Amino acid sequence: MFDIEKNWPFTDRHLTETINEIPNRYGYIGELGMFPSEPVATTAIEIARTSQGIRVLPQVERGGPSSTKGAPSEESIFLRIPSFPQIHTITPADVQDWLAKSQLPYKPKTMEQSLAERLESLRWDHDLTLEYQRVTAAQGIIKDGAGKTLLNLFTAFDIVQKVVDFDLDNNAAIITEKIDEVISHVRVN
Description:
Layout: H1 4-7, H2 12-21, H3 28-31, E1 44-50, E2 74-80, H4 111-139, E3 141-143, E4 149-152, H5 153-156, H6 175-188
Helix pairs in contact: 2-4
């Protein structure tokens, strides 16, 4: 029986497994734990928001009436998951008459070396794209590599964006007050 994986190692599955073995060169935002990844098998996700939060309870005398907690209300937001496909091809011209730079004495470049270089390049592009998505999400407006807005988080979650003008062109501006305004807004929200 013909085993395609053994006889033709360049299947989508094989190449995906190979590209996933290449280490991520970007990812500072991800390392901070701001955007934990969770794989999904769909092209959209649901984010449920509940009104139930935490609160500081009022003090009452022992045996007095307890405070009550109502049932939470819930609303959902559905978001499409964007796709970032990329195609890279290897032609005979990419291998013919090329010498592998990392080998002494110089030897002809192999198909496997060209494939490894292409997969590494693809991996870097996708890792950088993910990091860029995370950075723009932290700013509230998720964009793609062309600068197109994919999702305005302020609109999606019905949040009024706080804007603080530091007035840096004005020598008389009191910057510490503006910093305190930002810190106060972050603490409250």
